[in-house]
Description:
The structure holds 2 protein chains of 2 kinds.
Chain A: H1 7-23, H2 39-55, H3 74-86, H4 95-108, H5 111-122, E1 128-131, E2 147-150, E3 156-163, E4 173-179, E5 190-196, E6 202-207, E7 216-226, E8 231-232, H6 238-256, H7 264-272, H8 281-309, H9 318-340, H10 350-361, H11 368-378, H12 394-404
Parallel strand pairs in A: 1-4
Antiparallel strand pairs in A: 2-3, 3-7, 4-5, 5-8, 6-7
Helix pairs in contact in A: 1-3, 4-5, 4-6, 6-8, 6-9, 7-8, 8-9, 9-10
Chain B: H1 7-20, H2 25-34, H3 43-49, H4 67-79, H5 86-97, H6 104-112, E1 117-119, E2 146-150, E3 156-167, E4 174-181, E5 184-191, E6 197-202, E7 211-224, H7 228-263, E8 265-266, E9 269-270, H8 275-304, H9 309-335, H10 346-356, H11 362-380
Parallel strand pairs in B: 1-4, 2-4
Antiparallel strand pairs in B: 2-3, 3-7, 4-5, 5-7, 6-7, 8-9
Helix pairs in contact in B: 1-4, 4-7, 4-8, 5-7, 7-8, 7-9, 7-10, 8-9, 9-10, 9-11
Amino acid sequence: MDLDDTPEQAAYRAQVRTWLAEHKSQAPVLTGPEALKDEDEIVTARRAWQGKLAEAGLAGVTWPKEYGGQGLGPIEQLICNQEIAQAKVPSILDAIGVGMLGPTLIAHGADEQKARYLGPMLHGDEVWCQLFSEPAAGSDLAAVQARARLQDDGSWRLSGQKVWTTNAQFASYGLLLARTDSDVPKHKGMTMFIVPMDGAGVTVRGLRQISGEAEFNEVFFDDVALDSDAVVGGVGNGWGTALTTLMFERVTIGLGGEGLGYNATRFAKAIADDEDARRDPEIRHQLGEIVSELLAVRFTGYRTLTALQKGQIPGPEAGLAKVTIVNGAIKAGDLITDVVGPDALAQDSEWAYMISFLPGLKSAGGTEEILRNTIGERVLGLPPEPRLDKGIPFSELRSKEGAAV
Amino acid sequence: MNLALSDEQVFLREAARGALSRFKTIEAAREALDGNAPLPDLWPTACEAGWPGLLIDESAGGAGLDAFDAMLVLGECGRVLAGVALLGHLPATAILNDSPGAAKDQLEELATGERRAAYLPTSPPDDLAKEWTLDPAHGLRRPPALSAVNEGGDTQTRVNGALSFVPDAPGADLLVGVALLDGQPTGVAIDASASGVSIEAVQGYDATRSLGHITLKDVPATVLDASTESLAGAWHLAQALIAAESLGSVETALDVSVAYAKERHTFGRAIGSYQAVKHSLTEVLRQLENGRSLLYYAGWSRTGKPDEFPLAASAARSVAGRALDQAARTMISVHGGIGATWEHDAPLYFRRAQLSRRLLGGTAGATDRVAGELIAQASAA
């Protein structure tokens, strides 16, 4: 057991640190008085910065060399993430593309797709978004209803709605899970597509949340034309392709779970700043309980990395770390707001934003309840919930749903 | 970075599991509560396995291993509620091992287990209090550390004071802890057979946990040249060890509960298929995994980042103590009524949980130290 860098890792870290020190001045400024304000300017600057990071080999660290990556391991990716955070410069803009969708294309895409899309994705020239969730398909993702219909000439027509789509407002492409056959059971009738976001019939609308900000979008597709070569991983194989993306999502969380800023040090600082709170036994007790669990998650991430390095694939238990982070941050926000008082809820307060964002985050990547089901069944081996949707054609499900209760 | 067990560590853990499996420790725990039979003496087994010398340097006859290895053994003890006297012995040997002037033959006898030591738990200062304190006999107020009087020489002193609920004190040959000499925290080693030493065995709520109340009246003691960091480190090591032991008990409680949830049926379904049951078991797993991660943190930091060892060990204790409480209560509720009967094992894990949480400064004390360590860090930054 060792948390220190090997000599090779230390050399790599030094190389990354040197590059960041030399190029730091070119990074976009996102906080403080000098911060960029206009969203278009921010996106443009961050895309350019991603391009620089990619050229320097600090993006797509784990991607194979033939697709522009470095062919290195998850540890090197973590070292990069740590050094970028340490240098206080923004990370890549398209973490979803580079971290999850690119690796999915590498695993399932056709050679032509890899040659066409991976380079511009890695360099930030074309940003990607993930078009999986729908208003009626979240935790039960295999219930997607967005429908792609095959045309006589081999092309497709897509209609439907997606939701909770990060970066859709400036994305060039999306990876979309659509239903292509309703006459087979639901997991079998789906196909993954590459969708151009500037296509006719695509509408992106910001989705405002409790904070008042629109961190996500909803995306509407009205008879959007897709070429036959838009299919990724074969017609009818959409579920398997989606599972690959979700696996990379867990890796991304394992590598950067604390990137959300929900960490022990930040919360302790807020309490330490109040002379009375820092001495109050009850507040100390609550803080101690919260931060102990958040510290644990940091080391759970290192355990995940160790497993990755040994070639093991992270299982659903990584979802427990997400439950711990979100619930810990909710409790911390509550405690800090108790200490600070109504000022913590002021418009420009970091805490107001945090406590407004968290209730929604609880359901992101699957609700806490579905995560606990999955972990109970896959990790503890408990018997599954009785299900009414197994082996039934998707088209007949709706009528059975009503009859079952 | 590598947070996996080495082959040697896997072997150490498997060997411990094998050695302890030769005894019916769980049945014995119930028998002992009834007063029907004494607990099996596991110390010879510990000696055979080399556990007493885990934290003693090889040059002094020990295994020269680190806290994480000791935590693996404690985890196995916790799995089967085995009382092996390591919680008292190992922190004591850690202090002696850090004392350059300690007699080598003494260390050798402790490494083989020929003689057994008990640590006198003394909590170091935190961000709010400057005092070294002891666990109280009753109530919340923590008494000050033992006091020592200067005998004129550098190596001998006389110690006065009383300690309560000292793990593994009954039957120990040597007592090792902290006394205030001219107001300075100083390591002391006391021969348990010296005049003025009284050790009263405490019959506990958990019969597998050997505890003693100790009174020291003008007792001659050897002054140890261990550093203040080492004296504080022994407290934090004890926190890490009881955390590891508790998580071992959580593993068993969870395994047994999951197995029952798969076989017991109600309303035509295995109870483990119900979300309410499934989610409560998943909650135990969540806390267990958090605790395991913190054991790695504690194990690594003791030598890899000593500044963070108090934080890491306290966090491990905090999470593990709560995890065992949760696991024991879940074990009872998943089993329904039978889980609350004397015949079932669940009450034994419940008793272990309730007593462990209140020893060595308590789980709550560790939780407070986590906050204190981070508050101090934040203020310094």
